[in-house]
């Protein structure tokens, strides 16, 4: 099955985005082919090898993008080498892209057979751990950018010299009126930013409070790395990549200082890391910090693979959280998995 998401003709570039759904993904077939996609009279398709292509790639999903010319279909691009940019992503149960692979091919020859190989797109273990095969289906999104005139646009420019990690964005490094001591590290800040985004900081920096007169705040329950990202968010609304554990710490920090928007961002990032081995721990974490939307998505994830989750190491933790256990079991009962695989109590 295939679905066109976007076909865009921009200046000097054609962008084609398509979703391919591979049915019976876990069947014993050696390979699966997608439907063909017609671009400038060439047929494009994906061949996927669920068990890996060749013994050296066993345990991985191999993915090959191929194109071939249709007979008796002349085109002005025939026998020309055209730059092409491609990316593949898996669409997860939340309809979000993950595990993206990108490549730039400078000499895709039009009008003849072409092949780009990604022999280790994703491991079988990660695929199963993240529950990416749903009802024996795997959904792949492919984005293809073609540059018929040979000019590749939007290349990333390399910046020479030293690069300073500016957590303050356009507000720069001047006129600080506050120091935040986090364990063994100090961060300079502006009171106006902390008080504007956090009612907790606003209360701490009121007249008459020690922090207001000393212009120093001391924090000992968060690591400097995570507080740096907390501060970056207050200034720029962005957070640099963190580990799952660091996003959990940042969520706790956002909860403590009542920065709701940051909690929502952290949930979005943590959702990308959900797997069958950490889903229960994250569910309990979501309950603790009142992350209702995140909790809903976790219950949904768990309910889709009950026979796996109920044998995971963290399952027994739910017996200490009876209300959570009830919600999970009710969701499992209404899931589409065969009754023989559902949890029996």
For the biggest β-sheet, the strand order reads 1-2-10-7-8
Poorly predicted runs = 155-163, 337-345
Q: Strand content of the residues, in percent?
A: 25-35%
Structural class: alpha+beta
CATH topology of the domain at 2-146: Apoptosis, Tumor Necrosis Factor Receptor Associated Protein 2, Chain A
State the CATH class of the domain at 2-146: Mainly Beta
Please, what is the average pLDDT?
Answer: 84
In the CATH hierarchy, the architecture of the domain at 2-146 is Sandwich
Order of helices and strands: EEEEEEEEEHEEEHHHEHHHHHHH
Observed structural traits:
alpha+beta; Apoptosis, Tumor Necrosis Factor Receptor Associated Protein 2, Chain A; 5-stranded antiparallel sheet; 11 helices
């Amino acid at each position: 099955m295939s679905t066109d998401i976007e076909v865009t003709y921009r200046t000097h570039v054609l962008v084609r985005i398509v979703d391919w759904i591979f049915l019976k993904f876990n069947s014993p077939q050696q390979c699966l082919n997608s439907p063909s996609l017609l671009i400038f009279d060439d047929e494009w398709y994906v061949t996927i090898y669920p068990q890996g292509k060749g013994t050296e790639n066993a345990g991985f999903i191999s993915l090959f993008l191929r194109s071939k010319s249709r007979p008796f279909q002349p085109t002005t691009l025939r026998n020309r080498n055209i730059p092409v940019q491609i990316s593949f992503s898996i669409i997860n149960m939340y309809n979000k892209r993950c595990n993206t692979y990108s490549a730039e091919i400078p000499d895709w020859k039009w009008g003849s057979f072409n092949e780009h190989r990604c022999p280790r797109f994703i491991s079988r273990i990660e695929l199963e751990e993240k529950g990416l095969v749903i009802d024996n289906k795997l959904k792949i999104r492919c984005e293809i950018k073609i540059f018929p005139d040979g000019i590749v646009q939007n290349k990333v420019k390399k910046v020479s010299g030293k690069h300073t990690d500016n957590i303050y964005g356009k507000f720069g490094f001047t006129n600080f009126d506050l120091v935040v001591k986090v364990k063994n590290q100090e961060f300079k800040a502006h009171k106006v930013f902390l008080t504007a985004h956090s009612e907790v900081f606003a209360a701490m920096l009121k007249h008459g409070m020690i922090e207001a007169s000393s212009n120093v705040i001391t924090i000992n329950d968060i690591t400097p790395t995570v507080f740096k990202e907390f501060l970056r968010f207050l200034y720029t609304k962005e957070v640099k990549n963190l580990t799952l554990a660091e996003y959990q710490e940042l969520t706790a920090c956002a909860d403590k200082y009542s920065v709701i928007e940051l909690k929502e961002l952290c949930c979005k990032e943590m959702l990308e890391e959900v797997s069958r081995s950490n889903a229960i721990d994250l569910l309990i974490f979501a309950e603790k910090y009142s992350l209702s939307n995140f909790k809903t998505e976790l219950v949904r994830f768990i309910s889709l693979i009950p026979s796996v989750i109920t044998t995971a190491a963290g399952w027994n933790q739910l017996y200490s959280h009876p209300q959570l256990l009830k919600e999970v079991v009710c969701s499992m009962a209404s899931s589409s998995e065969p009754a023989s695989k559902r949890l029996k109590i």
